[in-house]
Amino acid sequence: MTADTATDVFEAHRPVLTGVAYRMLGRIADAEDVVQEAWLRWSSATRDDVRGPRAFLIRIVTRLAVDRLRRLQSHRVAYVGPWLPEPLVTDFGPAVPDTAEQAVLADSVSLAVLVVLESLSPLERAVFVLREAFGFPYGEIAATLERTEAAVRQLAGRARHHVGERKPRYDVDPVHRRDLTERFLAAAAGGDIQELLALLAPDVRLVGDSGGKSKAPLRILESADKVGRFLYAVAHDQAQDLEIRSLELNGGPAILVLAGGEPDCVIQVDVRDGVIQCVYIVRNPDKLTTFVGT
Question: What is the C-alpha to C-alpha distance for residues 144 and 155, in angstroms, rounded to an integer?
Fold first, then answer.
């Protein structure tokens, strides 16, 4: 295989490799590191090593991601405050034209699902990502993880049961979700506390991720009154040189807040039954580097 051919083949598979790595690790930099390591191994592989490029590359990325996740999980035990994945700009575009397939990919990369996946073992997470998000056959997953197909099916069953029990049920209608996001932003920015409270479910939750590096609640806030008043106070304490941008993150509408031209936070809401069930706020500057200079 020539260098040019090897590069072309790898680049053709890069989107799925990055998709697997991000869903496994929850951070863009970690996913990119894994993909880069996979490239180094791919570029040095011989023709005898590679019988099927797709299977070979998925196998490398998955194994590297499992190893890295085992190391990361020990560090996240000491994380300051709630942990959220690094926001990922998503635009599936013409590469994924089927609406049903888009819905599956968007759901598998949502903040709600990625938070639940954090509680899986690395092997359970790998099986869940490969099977549920990308539809890989059990036999191929078994070869990737060097496990029997029976063991992989058992891992898949445990992972599905765990995720099914803990994954919140949210509306997936993007138009409805975007409308509520815009109304939520207008109510918070306009100081209309009653309108803000009316948009929140009675048991709404607010999850703020600062990593101890900026201001955010160190515990999850629960109830419309606590969440509404916190957001109201934050909106009125902020400086006036704020810029608000709408964009799609992790498969759904989100808000990027810039302060003095620098990323301050990312806000996303989850919706069910016409009201907001969960508010996510990412303020850890390490997780906002994607938006620097935007």
Answer: 14
